[in-house]
Amino acid sequence: MEEITWNDFEKVELRAGTVLGVFDFPEARKPAYKLKVDFGDLGIKMSSAQVTKHYSKEELIGQQIVGVVNFPKKQIGKFMSEFLVTGFADEHGDIVLTTLNGTVPNGSKMM
């Protein structure tokens, strides 16, 4: 594991956002959804997430998730991802989203 400095960590913009919409993403190489997330003053951003094993589209609506919002946009097929959805792989390699235990304002930065 490579160590980083506090200054390195401070550069990563981990922000809270609320899922507003979830859409099928049949063009994805691995099963995924397209997510529309409200990051408050940072705006509404789109990304994809390989979370179909643990979540239905309906249960994702309204959840607050954690995203990295300061990576460059990334082209995924015909879709442009505007942030990185964060999560952890379970024992089968399926992704469990990083979520919050309480509610914070959209766009709040992880401290």
UniProtKB/TrEMBL annotation:
Q: Which residues cross the membrane?
A: none
Give the record's keywords alphabetically. Answer: RNA-binding, tRNA-binding
Is Ion transport given among the entry's keywords?
Answer: no
Which residue range or ranges hold the TRNA-binding domain? 8-111
The domain of life is Bacteria
Q: Which PROSITE patterns match?
A: TRBD (PS50886)
Q: Known InterPro entries for this protein? A: CsaA (IPR008231), NA-bd_OB-fold (IPR012340), tRNA-bd_dom (IPR002547), Tyrosine-tRNA_ligase_regulator (IPR051270)
Spell out the NCBIfam families in the cross-references: chap_CsaA, PRK10089.1-3, PRK10089.1-4
Name recorded for this polypeptide: tRNA-binding protein
The record lists the organism as Pedobacter gandavensis
